[in-house]
Amino acid sequence: MRVTRPMLALSGAVAILALTGCGGSGDKDEAAVPEAVTGSLEHIAAEADCKPNMQTDADTIRQALCKKGKEKYVLATFSTDRGQREWINTAKDYGGFYLVGRKWVAVGHEDVLQALRGTLGGTVEVGLNHASHAPGGGKDDKPAHSGHHDN
């Protein structure tokens, strides 16, 4: 078999993808994340080994406080996907970390949510940090979210 330039180019591209981790096999951390759980607040809390302390029990949202070790987090379930997305979009304006599943969200410290993600699945979303916009600025006076770009 004769090696041609197109074959060398293809081989080089495959090698680069393999070295940079951009191949089709996915990230090994992603492989460890289970499919997101579904169900009632009580079911999700049980999966997370939480005894929920109910704070809100309404038709559209149910919300409880949970503990993971010494850390606390909020677990909320929603009656609709749209209601969940609207709630998250509003809440993210206040910063924080959100572990998001289908019709549920956990809100807490990043480390707690990463640990929960190994049990509950879901994806982590990060809220906006407006501390750098306050008088006196934030750490290093740099924007805290991707809505601002240095050009």
Polypeptide structure, described:
This protein is of the alpha+beta class. The chain is built from 5 helices and 6 strands, in the order αααβββαββαβ. The longest helix is centred in the N-terminal third of the chain and has 16 residues, at 5-20. The protein is globular, with a radius of gyration of 21 Å. Residues 3-26 and 136-151 have low confidence and may be disordered.
Strands, count: 6
The major beta sheet can be summarized as: 6 strands, antiparallel
**Poorly predicted runs of 5 or more residues:** 3-26, 136-151
Distance between the termini: 50 Å
Mean pLDDT: 76
* Percent strand: 15-25%
Keywords:
single chain; 151 residues; alpha+beta; six-stranded antiparallel β-sheet; 5 helices; 32% helix; disordered N terminus; disordered C terminus
